[in-house]
């Protein structure tokens, strides 16, 4: 299998705080990886490096040439009177041309993204009145519009209840299989990491560990990540 991403000897830090030293890992095309670590260890910073918003201080980050990234943020609280429907929200970033209407192709892309995220029947619902799971799926649909082959889910399950987390991750797993999407899932939830992803990259201050999730030993994980202390 081809590597979608290779990170080689990456070092990065802010001011006097070094976040990673010699971080090296690969993501195979079609793999599902959890990025886990305690608050403040550098998960978001690594995502920003992968997205090109920050640059390595040493080492390198290389993607396969046709890599296309989709980014799914954690949903924010949205005013119940927020005036957009789920469908209008999904197509919000789509108008890349100067005309205030959507082309047939764009409308088809929106319909496909709504179908892939099982939102078709709910597309006219106001986003502000949608459930947490539906809001999160709307962000996912928005990210799928550009037909990415690499999806970063940034704490996308953090504010959802258990059933909705499972529903969202089942959907992500379906997309991973049907579209051969490579997935990087940022989370504090070890159980979800274990159940839904193949491998994990654990960041701890000054160290990292990349392993298959079936080899994860929860008891050896940093205390902040263990279920009893979970703060999501
Ligand atoms: N632009 C910045 N300038 C200076 N320090 C920063 C900047 N961005 C992040 N940091 C610091 O770098 C460290 C890592 O932050 P980061 O947001 O990557 O952590 P995280 O693992 O994503 O945390 P969380 O789980 O809480 O979201 C933190 O100590 C943070 O305060």
* Cofactors, ions, other ligands: adenosine-5'-triphosphate
- Overall geometric form: globular
CATH topology of one domain: Rossmann fold
Structural class: alpha/beta
Question: Given this structure, which CATH class of one domain is correct?
Answer: Alpha Beta
How many helices? The count is 6
Rg (CA only): 18 Å
Which CATH architecture of one domain is right?
Answer: 3-Layer(aba) Sandwich
Strand content: 25-35%
N-to-C series of helices and strands:
EEEHEEHHHEHEHEE
Topology of helices and strands:
Layout: E1 3-14, E2 17-28, E3 32-37, H1 43-50, E4 58-63, E5 69-72, H2 86-90, H3 104-116, H4 132-144, E6 150-154, H5 162-179, E7 182-187, H6 190-196, E8 199-204, E9 207-212
Parallel strand pairs: 3-7, 3-8, 5-6, 6-7
Antiparallel strand pairs: 1-2, 1-4, 8-9
Helix pairs in contact: 3-4, 4-5
Bound molecules: adenosine-5'-triphosphate.
GO molecular function: ATP binding; ATP hydrolysis activity
Family: Belongs to the ABC transporter superfamily.
Pfam families: ABC_tran (PF00005)
Describe this structure in words.
- This protein has six helices and nine strands.
- The chain is α/β, with parallel strands linked by helices.
- The strands form two sheets. Strands 5-6-7-3-8-9 form a six-stranded mixed beta sheet, with helices on both faces. Strands 2-1-4 form a three-stranded antiparallel beta sheet, with no helix packed on it.
- Helix 4 (132-144) runs parallel beside helix 5.
- The longest helix has 18 residues, at 162-179.
- The model has no long low-confidence stretch (mean pLDDT 90).
- Bound molecules: adenosine-5'-triphosphate.
- Residues 14, 19, 37, 39-45 line the site of adenosine-5'-triphosphate.
- InterPro entries: AAA+_ATPase (IPR003593), ABC_transporter-like_ATP-bd (IPR003439), Metal_Ion_Import_ABC (IPR050153), P-loop_NTPase (IPR027417).
- Residues 5-230 form the ABC transporter domain.
